[in-house]
Amino acid sequence: MGVLEAVSTCLRKYATFSGRAARPEYWWFALVVVALNIAATAADLTFFGVEMIEVERTESLADGTTRTMEMTAAQQSASPFALVVSLLTFLPFLAVGWRRLHDTGRSGWWLVAPNGAGLLTVVLSAAGFSVAPALGGALGLVLGLVILVLWILLIYWLASRGDTETNAYGPPPA
């Protein structure tokens, strides 16, 4: 399967989460999505530019004093092109990843796991738990490692050879 056939298949199965997807279908589409996002970001930067903003951060030190740091940061002004590309490719990219995991005999729900752990980190932080490792939040370190391990595992599975026989998700992709 070449790049055009992979993109055509993914767009034809825009929101199809059943069945299986072969490695080339997934990886060619992933490459196209990354290339489109790079092009869209370049267009955003070209047409909308970057603005420099002043950031001030105050932190309390262990001895009871405070320290203020001033920084200048670059912030992208607007990202309408990247937003459109992301909105158009999100569902088919999720669907092909889902089917790709099916091809290896795994549930597509594994694609949600790293984001679920990330959401848990945000919820715990909002609830007042210290999740920042720099502030002594070991919980944040543990959750960060869990997220990292989940992403590594997902990439490994997505790159693995699919089942050669029919599995719980159907026959091998043609």
Automatic annotation (TrEMBL):
Give TM segment ranges: 26-50, 78-98, 110-132, 138-159
Taxonomy, superkingdom: Bacteria
A Pfam family cross-referenced in the UniProt record is DUF805
Q: Does the keyword Protease apply?
A: no
- InterPro entries assigned: DUF805 (IPR008523)
Which keywords belong to this entry?
Answer: Membrane, Transmembrane, Transmembrane helix
- Any single GO CC term annotated in Swiss-Prot or TrEMBL for this entry: plasma membrane
Is Transmembrane included in the keywords of this UniProt record?
yes
Protein name as annotated = Uncharacterized membrane protein YhaH, DUF805 family
State the organism of origin: Rubrimonas cliftonensis
The organism's lineage is:
Bacteria, Pseudomonadati, Pseudomonadota, Alphaproteobacteria, Rhodobacterales
